[in-house]
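Q: What does the assembly look like in three dimensions?
Context provided by user:
Components: two
Sequences:
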Amino acid sequence: MRFILYRLLEAIPTIWVILTLTFILVNLAPGGPFDREKDLPPGVEEQINAYYGLDQPLPVQYVRYLGNLLRGDLGPSYQHPGWTVNEIIAAKLPVSLILGGASLLVALIIGLAAGIIASLRPGSWLDLSAISLATIGICLPSFVLGPLLLLAFGIGMEWFNVAGLNTPRDLVLPSITLGLFFAAYIARLTRSSLLEVHNLDYIRTARAKGAGERRILLIHSLRNAMVPVASYLGPAAAGLVSGSFVIETIFGIPGLGRYFVLAAINSDYTLVMGTVLVYALLLIAFNLVADCIIAFLNPRHRSGGTSR
Amino acid sequence: MLGIGIAMSGCGQRTTPVELANEQQILLLGNGSDPEELDPHLVSGITEARILNALLEGLVRLNEKTLQPEPAAAASWTVDASGRFHTFHLRPEARWSDGTPVTALDFSFAYQRILTPALGAPYASMLHVLKGAAAYNSGDTADFADVGVRVIDTHTLELELSNPTPYFLSLLSHFAWFPVPRHTVLDHGAIHQRGSRWTKPGNFVGNGPFALTRWNLGESVDVARNPEYWQSSRVQLNGIRFIVFDNLNAEERAFRAGQIHVTQTLPLGRIRHYKAADPSPLHIAPYLGTYYLGLNVTRPALDDPRVRQALSLAIDRRAITQQLLQDIQTPAFHFTPPDIDGYTTGFRLDEDPEKARQLLAAAGYPDGRGFPRLEILYNTSESHRAIAELIQERWRSVLNIEVGLMNQSWGSYLSSRRQGNFDIIRAGWIGDYYDASTFLGLFTSSSGNNHTGWALDEYDALIAAAAQSVDPAQRRTLFDQAETLLLQQLPIIPIYFYNSAYLIHPSVVNWQGNLLDYQTYLDIHLDRNRTLH
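A: Here is the predicted structure of the complete assembly.
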């Protein structure tokens, strides 16, 4: 409990630093939220800036932003005047979480299965093919894999829609595309840590005591071998939720990733700040969950954050 | 992966969304990026224009074939002898989608709102043809009674212009002139409130052929037939879904998979494929736009018209349109696209390497010697880069001069352009209405979009005279004189005229491709018997 509380308190200055840096960076970038192909007539832009308080000095804007943030108000989107940042995040984050969750599931199922199979007979053709597949998964960029899957199974076989996210079925291709990279990484991690654990004394003891290979794998090795995998899961989950811009664009999925990138391109300051905040919170939360899983798997990690 | 694929194979051939929509008479339209807003006073893009044309209706609309104005919310109108006073008689039977009558007050309110300085409406300047509108819009006067908008009675509206504006009726079909429901807008905030909730589904009230039912950011805007529309019986579609596609390739794949009826555009790489297909869903239609290079005439070398002419003479426009652009675009040898309401300039730019070298030598740079190193600035895009490279190579081989290429993100590009922080800049201009002044007005000294630093009193006077004239023949002569000046002085080098290339499913009947990409959706219907294969 103390460990979790400590980590949560630690998060507050982290978030503050991230937000402050983001605020400085978005305001340093050239261009403004109201720039368009056709220039606004003189005077109009000043009016809009005055309406949103963007004519105030930056420190004033900064303090006002933080004040509003404390009240849970992330401000209006400049790009979509009828929508607040809160509304956009509320509408789009669930889509990203669903896509990220499905991809994490794909990554875990494929990654763990491949890693375990590969570790059973190191050096065998099974090991070789599982790890070769994993290497391909890491090397194959999603902007190549995604369109290939779409061409084969969407347009060729007509099994799946090629754009949009309206039914659970629409999740299949994007979550495979997004999850495969992480699956490959998990497979390699699982294999190497299982092989490491296989040679430890307690496994040899278990084997000497006559425990079956299946029991050794499931009860003894896997639990310990999962520690590196679990510590990878935190950043992986955050990466899956936040790093889906390319996937969202390829598959026409209306998630938050697309808004994050478009907001940065369009200098939609408040939306950039809002999405950065959400991603920072997610990263911290996923890392915390991963640490809790590690602590559960390995009691030596339970003594609290400071002693590590 | 294969396992999942095989597991799904039992599902067999499915009914595609297009087949389903044909049964329901719902048009599935690829509509580019997210609409920024559905408030006609806060938007400026084509994406939004397409949706607003379904939701709202101005005093007049354009005939989609001829682009000539015809009655819409106004059943008739009269113009006085001076050409400055227009009196519109609204349809007494016209209703907002909530059943409230559409009145002259709604139009007057809409014009007051878009001109209200604090709203910061991007297209307020479209209304500056109204007497006193510019002064009200800039805050010089706070009394709307000074603006040439008068409500004579519930269904009569008089508009007074500063000058007789021959294209005024055509202007009225632009969404900047659409009415907004006074009662709904004020229910959700003050007249100048940006981002009021009146445009949200459930709140939105319109007077167009369709009514808003759903707006999901990043997904689609859905509209359904509006039973309150005065010409509701003419509308054949039950609804339209305007679908968001940020990615050209995703949109084209969606078309191929039977998910949409019409794409907004088409990736260049797919054009050859569709040109070969028989029958092809590919449609190529002229579009009111010009792609050009802007020259910063305040920079050394570029301040000399002979240098600018030499640069233009050295370009091979056909190589650009044929080699790079799949022959979709039309090489431009003048600036205003041909045949805007009967106007095409008689002047043509030449391409002549020998003459180009002579002019450059006459300007003091024989064989390119001593020519300063200039840069072409473009916003990051594969096709802009390819065009800039071809021009760079042409100038090197013909004129023996080196120019650099500089690409910037959209925001940085706009910022550099506004500050005049460039030598040569790629640019495009899309006309707002069906009159040559939407192009030639760009290079007057007072235009905010003339980024070249070029200004000429004689040119300004010609454009001003055309704005005063009501005689079409005289106006064409004035425009021709102005454009000839522009093309002799060349602060800009026209490269090509835009055509739009997009895909239409054969089941879509009565879709009209036109210069303005203007649709009223009134006569479109879907014929399920017409299929792609």
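Follow-up: DSSP finds twelve helices and no strands in chain A.
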